[in-house]
Specification:
This protein is α+β, with helices and mostly antiparallel strands. It is built from eight helices and ten strands.
Length: 284
């Protein structure tokens, strides 16, 4: 017995003497509330959310795991962080570009949602209401099916707006977000200082395809053509005139765009031009 005890002690001493061996044998397991990230570009603005995602795990969430009428970090582990790359409107209230913590006060029929300047905090102990950049009320909605893990999801996204939906168990709460896309595009166009023809036609095409301010689009494409005539800006002008119902003027421009395009190695709108020529022939 003494011999066995001696060898056991010696083996244990050798084990702890090996550098890094104890650390190497640490158990690596999944987090109970794993980290998650989601982002969405709205026009020219990126909205990103970082959070920890707890599970239902058979528990009663609303009113128990998450008490009613008490401040909640809106996730697990640390406060949920939302980042806007440009200035936005949240619930029609202005919010400057930057990162914020999302805090909520869940209620049975209404939630309070707050964005707080101190995004780098754990639970609610460090929360200071005077650092809120906004607060608003939101009505919770029932989900058709239960969601096991808390998730943030972007929905109903357009060029200028999106909805950030918090979903967990059988409940959804939404943060309406609007980007200042039209204002940002207009500023980009107005500040465009260049002698290159492409930026002007790109700006004109944006206004045409977005069906916004065709008169401004026509001015921009004429500026592009005055610098250098190309099948793309000629075709873009034809499209703008057609959108204004001026097919008599649009048709010969489409013909000219085809002639110039057939001489180009990159006539990527060829099918569209040929289709327009066929459709516009009887409208001029």
């Amino acid at each position: 017995m003494r011999t066995n005890s001696f060898f056991l002690k010696a083996a244990f001493a050798a084990l702890i003497a090996v550098p890094g061996l104890a650390a190497a044998q640490q158990l690596d397991l999944p987090r109970p509330s794993p980290l998650a990230k989601v982002s969405q570009v709205v026009g020219l603005t990126e909205v990103a959310v970082e959070y920890s995602s707890p599970g239902v795990k058979g528990r009663k969430i609303w009113g128990e795991v998450v008490p009613y009428d008490k401040l909640w970090r809106t996730g697990a582990n640390i406060a949920t962080k939302i980042t806007f790359s440009k200035d936005v409107l949240v619930n029609d209230q202005p919010v400057a570009a930057g990162s914020y913590a999302i805090f909520t006060i869940p209620g049975k029929t209404s939630w309070t949602i707050a964005l707080n300047k101190n995004f780098n905090q754990g639970g609610t102990d460090q929360y200071e209401q005077n650092l809120d950049v906004l607060r608003f009320q939101a009505k919770p909605q029932a989900l058709p099916t239960s969601r096991e893990r808390l998730a943030f999801i972007f929905s109903n996204t357009t060029e200028s707006a999106t909805s950030l939906d918090l979903e967990w168990e059988k409940l959804r709460v939404s943060l309406p977000i609007k980007a200042k896309t039209d204002e940002q595009v207009a500023a980009s166009i107005n500040n465009m200082v260049t002698n290159a023809w492409r930026p002007y036609v790109n700006a004109a095409r944006y206004l045409l395809e977005a069906k916004k301010d065709l008169d401004q689009a026509l001015k921009l494409v004429d500026q592009s053509i005055s610098i250098k005539e190309d099948w793309l800006n000629v075709w873009t002008k034809a499209g703008i005139l057609a959108a204004k119902g001026q097919y008599r003027d649009a048709y010969p421009l489409a013909e000219k765009a085809k002639q110039l395009g057939d001489q180009s190695q990159n006539f990527f709108f060829k099918a569209d031009v040929e289709k327009a020529l066929s459709e516009w022939k009887n409208k001029k």
